[in-house]
Every structure is written in C-alpha cells, then in structure tokens.
Design brief:
It is globular and about 70 Å long. It has 19 helices and 29 strands. A hairpin with a 2-residue loop joins strand 16 and strand 17 (441-453). Helix content is 25%, strand content 24%. The chain is an alpha+beta fold.
C-alpha cells in the first residue's frame, strides 16, 4: 500500500485485544539481561573458530605513511596476517555510489599510504586471539611524513562553502528578512556554539565475517542493513546479492551505526584471504576517531519582533564541518523553517572542510543542536519583551507551515505547553532572574519547545501462519535497543487476534524483505506499516477460508469468527500454512501535509552561587507523537533522549587538540555524559493523538523527539536562576562564574 490518503479506521484503531499502547515488557528483555542475545562479536554461527583482527590507527592527522616495518609483527606468536596498503586487496575509491543512499558509500581500507585523519587505519593484524593480534600490532613500526592540516573550524570559517542541495535545501528565504530585521522594534542577534559530540554507544563497533564460495556473510552492528549490504558490495566491487548482512541485536546506534566502517571491510577482506572466519572489534578509544561524530556548530540567531511579541523576522545561520573528503553538514537550521510564524524568514547552512574524522548523523541530527540555539534565542526575546516564554510562543503559533504553507497533519504544541505548565507548576516561576534562593543555591525554571520531523520510508514484510497458529514475520528491520521486536509483536498479535507468545518476529537479516532499518525515528512507522499491510493480506486469506468477507470476521483469542462460523487460525492455515507479503510506500501524504512530532520541556535547576555548580532538580517533557504503540518503551525512549539533552547542555564535549587534530578526551572517563547522580526525577508524558495522515498505524517517530529542545530548557533555567546567559555549550561552572554579574 502507498500512503496516498488518510488512513481509514482499521483493526489497530479497534484494538480488540488491548495490546496497542499497552506497556508490555520487551520480548527480548530476558535474553538480553541473561546474556543470551548475541551481539556481533559474540555470534557463534561461524563455520569454524574465528581469527581475531586488530586495527592500527594513524598517529598523525594528515600526511603519508613513508615506511612501515611489519616484520616483527608477522613473526609474533599466533599471527596469521598483517595487512597494510602494500598488500590490501583492490577496492573502490571512497564515496557514494547511489546519491539516494549516502550510507551505501564505498569505504576502502588501506587503499593507499595517505593519512586523511587521526586514527585512520594504517595496518591490520589478524591472529588466533585478540590478545595476540593486539600484541603484534604494537610491534609494527611506522614512519610518517606529516603534512599541515586544518583542525579548527573557527579559524577556517573564512573558507566556508554552501553545501550542495540534496533532499534538504541548504538555504531558504521568504520575504525580505534583512529589511524586516533591521526595522524590527525589538531584536535578538546572538551567536550560539555547540561542540563536537560522540555517539558513545554501549556496544563497540564489531564485525564477524566469513565466505561461503563467493558470498560473504557479515555479522555487524548496523542500523541499516540494505545500506550496509550495498556499502560492502560497493567497496569490495561485488554484486549486492553476494553480501549478507546480519545484525539481530545492536547495543545502541544513535546514528553512529548508520554507516559501516573499516572493521567490517577489513574482516571481510581478511576472511577471504585466509579462508576462515575473522572478527574485529574496535576499542572504546578507537571509536572516537575511527567512527563518526557530530560536528561542532556556530549558529547565529536573529529574531525581530513587534513590542507585543509578534515575530516579523526570523533568521538562523548555521556553520558546521565535514571531513575534507566528505559532504555531510549539520542541518541545524531546518526546524526553524516550520516552528514559528514570521512573514520574513532566512535559514542558511555553510560547511567548512577540515582534516578531522568524518562527521555524520548523531542523535537527532539537525534539530538536537539547532534547538539548543533557537530555543535559547526565543527565551532571550521573551525577556526583552517582558513576556512569559510560553506566551511568546503562543503569539507566534502558525496556522499552516510557515515556509511550505502546507496544513499540519496534527500539531498540538500549544496543548503540550498548557499541559506541561500545569503539571510542572510553571506559574511559580519568577520572571526576574536570580530572584529565588535556597541558601547558597540559586533556583531557576526554564522551558523550551521540541519538534522533530516525521518520516515514512518504503518497507516490505513477509508473514507466515502455521498449523499451530503461530505467526512468523520477517523483515530486515533492526532493533537498536528501541523495542522494535516488542512493538512489532504487538502489532502482529493485535492484527490477527493472537496472544503475543504466538508471534515470532525475525529481524536483522538482509536476506529478509527490505526495510529502511532504524534511523531518523522512522523505524516503527515504516516497518510496522509493512507488517500491518502483510497482516491485512493474511486476514483476507483467512476470511476466504472461513467463507466470509474480511470486514465480517472478528479475530480474537487465536480464532476467526463470522457470525456462527468460528475456527482457530491454525486450522484455517492447514498443514501447508498460509503466507502473505506486505509493503508500505511513502505516497503523497508527506507532500500534502507538514508532518512533525511536538513537545515541550520544563526544567528546574539549582546553581551554587559560590562555585557555579549546576544541578538539575527535576524535568518534565510533554509530547504529542501520534498513537503510542507501547507506553513503556515510548516513555523509555523519551526519558533517555531527555537525558541526552541534559548531557548536551551540561557535560558533553569532545575536545580537539588543534596541534594534532585528535580528540584528547577519547574515552568515557574523560568524555563526560550524565551519570545516575546527575539525573533526578525525569518524567515524560504523552498526549492522546492519532495522526491518520502519517501511516496506517497513525503513529509518529518518538526516539529522537525527546532530545530536541531539552538542553535549551536547562540553559534557560540556568539563566532564570542566575541571570547568566551562556551561549557556548556545554554550560560548565567556569562559564557560570566567568559571566556571573553578582556573587554571594
């Protein structure tokens, strides 16, 4: 089916079994907590004992390998292979092969003696054990010829260039922004900066590869299986049909496992050469350079308003970086195009090419850092106007999308604000910064809006019902810890009237029907809608076998019933069983309606007046994200993303040494993320909402919505507590003390 019209009432709406929305436990939870869910490095399916690989990363950021002596490593105990640019197999050059899928890009390893960034692979050792490979890697002697590089975005911003327009236009303009802003009676013109962010997933990137004839099987940590399949095929220059990617369990993705990296390619290359399975895992330290990260940004916000708080001009300029050889940029200005009404508008993106590791999608790319700037700027404007921040947003609520003029599919931003304000006690906020004290602690409240674009991607699914009444669904969808196995089980069980224990969801195999995988918060909508369509087709077959029309049949308790006729699904399936396929296509709804999920964050902080220490006291997020499939997993997604937002506001920053082009805090001891002591009571609330314009399930993406705006709510609370406006994230105590007007 294609999403060309609003979805009519269907069995998910009826919810006869009561499974949709129910906070059921994860169906894979027991496997995970008992260690029975094998992640890529732990898979035991290889035909023979795998050898272990270890990657040697460059210790310069730009230049060449002038000489490499691997003789000692080659003679070390247990070593099977030392691969360098001198003996690596021929591969395709770096870059996208399919413009529609940049994650299918060719990613060659050890293809030349050039070093493009710190940590890039310059050698690879395979041995009988991890310890042997690591020890041998330390014996390799490499002499470099270093070249001057550029690692400082601020210093190089004079070389910024406009990115090419792909699916998202780099710039947008409506009206005469410059004239409107210049003539606005009330103005905010401020620059906000965000640092490099690291994904910091729990599971390190890893791969296990073996060849069966001319076909390679790769178990790896991947969010997008078809992209991974095509990336391996493109790099090794073999047909995609000769590549099988398996990723049944993924220990966190966050965008960092959208591409595949050198551990996949090197494992596959070594396995082919050695004719035995090879597995490779990155160390935590290697992940900081060898995989992708979020670019730092410099964002200028210009808001012009009338004295009564009506925006007349809104401008958002964003600067980010890409690797020298890549085209990615952080789309930090895009949410500004649709969030608030203003007749004169300008958004721009510029990118600086640096000799740093590749930057790419990280935890709600675009909105996550874009709203750190936009929502602080709105708070600053509210202060200048003497308006409550909620009231300012209310006065600039658009009737239609401000840039496309499309109607919103649903938009409950104001209701989120009202519900959140009442629950949080927003009326107790003092409009005067620094007015509330508890001993030496300064207390402040802040809020910020949240929005995240909603997507539906093409997907397919196959289902089969056996004589025991067990339904098996297969698709190449992934579960990156978000609960895909669970919500898909709920959908299938509800569609067929089966208990959940009678449903088997099989995911994470590129040999299964194609899906877009997990990314962009589109997974449940896309894979779930394909499953819905397959189950709809299966319902029609079962109805025919019962001698009834599909609309006459009630599916409940493992039975199909139409009037006096009733039979178990297993009996209707028969000895051969029944099977069906389903699909979802994007259709025209996304072109006819502006589709976003919305929310509002509220935060209370305490700031030590003497030390500048910031403590989050409580936080509330109220969200409108379509129908909720599982309240427990959705709440977990939202609160986890809110914690991401706290990290962005107060802790996270990967620091580049501009002399060497390397992240100096390249482990979880020095790259600070929130710990238990940093996170007090955090609550996420979902409003009732059903969006029939998005997909047949009437859901929206949830996974990344919670981070959008969360950090800005914390920053605004710090300002309310202290009167200190910190525009350089993260907000650390030195910045509080350095800017604080009054002490004591």
């Amino acid at each position: 089916m294609d999403m060309n019209a609003p979805s009519a009432r269907n069995p998910i709406d009826d919810n006869r079994g009561g499974l949709i929305g129910k906070p059921v436990d994860r169906v894979d939870g027991r496997l995970k907590v008992t260690g029975q869910a094998p992640y890529a490095y732990e898979v035991q399916e290889a035909p023979g004992k795998p050898a272990c690989g270890f990657i040697v990363g460059a210790t310069i950021a730009k230049g060449t390998v002038a000489d490499i002596d691997a003789s000692a490593a080659e003679k070390a105990p247990g070593v099977l292979l030392v691969m360098t640019h001198r003996n690596a197999a021929k591969q395709a050059p770096w870059g996208p092969v399919d413009a529609k899928d940049r994650f299918a890009r060719s990613t060659p390893q050890l293809a030349s003696n050039a070093v493009r960034y710190y940590g890039e692979a310059v050698a690879y050792v395979v041995a009988e054990s991890f310890e042997a490979a690591r020890a041998a890697a330390a014996l390799i002697r490499i002499r470099y010829e270093a070249a001057p590089g550029e690692y400082d975005m601020a210093a190089a911003q004079g070389k910024a260039e406009k990115p090419r327009d792909d699916e998202t236009q780099a710039d947008s303009r409506i009206g005469d922004f410059e004239a409107a802003f210049a003539g606005a009676p009330v103005q905010v013109d401020a620059t906000y900066t965000t640092p490099h962010h690291i994904h910091a997933q729990m599971e390190p990137h890893a791969a296990l590869a073996w060849w069966t004839g001319d076909r390679v099987t790769v178990h790896c940590a991947s969010q997008l299986l078809e992209s991974a399949q095509n990336a391996v095929a493109n790099t090794l220059q073999i047909p995609p049909s000769k590549v099988r990617i398996v990723s049944r369990y993924v220990g966190g993705g966050f965008g960092g496992k959208l591409p595949v990296y050198g551990e996949v390619m090197l494992s596959a290359m070594a396995a082919r050469q050695l004719r035995r399975p090879v597995k490779t895992a990155l160390t935590r330290q290697q992940m900081f350079h060898f995989t992708t990260h979020r670019s730092q940004t410099v964002q200028r916000l210009r808001l012009g308003a009338t004295p009564d708080g009506r925006l007349t001009a809104i401008g958002h300029d964003s600067l980010s970086h890409s690797a020298r050889f890549d085209d990615f940029y952080e789309t930090a200005s895009t949410q500004t195009r649709s969030l608030y009404a203003a007749p004169n508008r300008l958004t721009t993106h510029r990118v600086v090419r640096l000799d740093l590791p590749v930057s790419d999608s990280t935890r709600a790319p675009g909105e996550a850092v874009g709203m750190l700037a936009l929502e602080q700027a709105m708070d600053e404007l509210a202060g200048k106007l003497g308006l409550d921040p909620i009231e300012l947003r209310r006065r600039n609520e658009p009737a239609t999308d401000p840039e496309t003029n499309l109607p919103f599919s649903t938009r409950q931003l104001l209701r989120c604000m009202d519900e959140g304000a009442e629950r949080f006690g927003w009326n107790r906020r003092s409009a005067t910064p620094g007015a509330v004290r508890e001993g030496r602690w300064q207390i402040g409240l802040g809020m910020a809006a949240a929005t995240r674009s909603n997507y539906l991607m093409d997907a397919r699914c196959a289902v089969a019902l056996d004589r025991q009444g067990v339904l098996t669904a297969r698709m190449s969808m992934t579960d990156i810890g978000t609960g895909s196995y669970t919500v898909l089980t709920q959908i299938a069980a509800e569609m067929l009237g089966l208990p959940m224990e009678k449903v088997r969801i099989e995911l994470g195999d590129s040999d299964f029907p194609e899906t877009p995988g997990s990314g962009g918060s589109w997974g449940a909508a896309s894979a779930g809608s394909a499953l819905f369509d397959a189950c709809t087709a299966l319902r029609a077959q079962l109805a025919r076998r019962l001698g009834a029309k599909p609309g006459e049949v009630v599916f409940a308790g493992g039975r199909a019933t139409a009037g006096a006729r009733s039979e178990t699904l297993g009996a209707l399936a028969g000895t051969v069983g029944l099977s069906a396929e389903g699909r979802i296509g994007k259709g025209d709804m996304a072109k006819k309606f502006s589709q976003q999920a919305y929310g509002v964050h509220f935060a209370e902080v305490a700031v030590d007046a003497d030390t500048g220490e910031i403590r989050l006291r409580r936080m509330l997020g109220v969200f409108a994200a379509g129908r909720i499939l599982n309240m427990k997993t959705a709440t977990s997604q939202a609160t986890g993303a809110m914690i991401w937002g706290v990290g962005s506001a107060l802790f996270e920053a990967a620091v580049v040494d501009p002399r060497f082009g390397a992240f100096v805090n390249h482990d979880l001891a020095e790259y600070h993320v929130p710990s238990h002591a940093d996170i007090p009571a955090i609550e996420a609330v979902f409003l009732d909402e059903f969006d029939d314009k998005t997909n047949p399930l009437k859901i929206k993406g949830v996974g990344e919505l919670g981070i959008c705006g969360a950090g800005a709510a914390v920053a605004n609370a710090v300002y309310n507590a202290t009167g200190v406006r910190i525009r350089d994230y993260p907000l650390t105590l030195d910045k509080v003390i350095g800017l604080q007007p009054h002490r004591g």
